[in-house]
User: What shape does this take?
Amino acid sequence: MSRRRSSIMSDALKEQIAQELGFAGTLHQEGFGGVSSRNCGNMVKMAIELAERNLPNNTSNFT
Assistant: This one.
């Protein structure tokens, strides 16, 4: 049985992060299959950092 997961990140956020990291052209031309594992990891890392910055009552108790 094939199960498809819904994306947590919007396409607009993925696009914005890819642009900031400099691989938006590859993403447009080849899709995520053409993006390196390193760049995908960097994308996830940046998304986590953005989410942490936007948390309500953001405190630095997790360091």
Observations:
- Residues 23 and 35 are 8 Å apart (CA to CA).
- Helices lie at 11-21, 24-30, 37-53.
- Residues 11-53 form one domain.
- The longest helix spans residues 37-53.
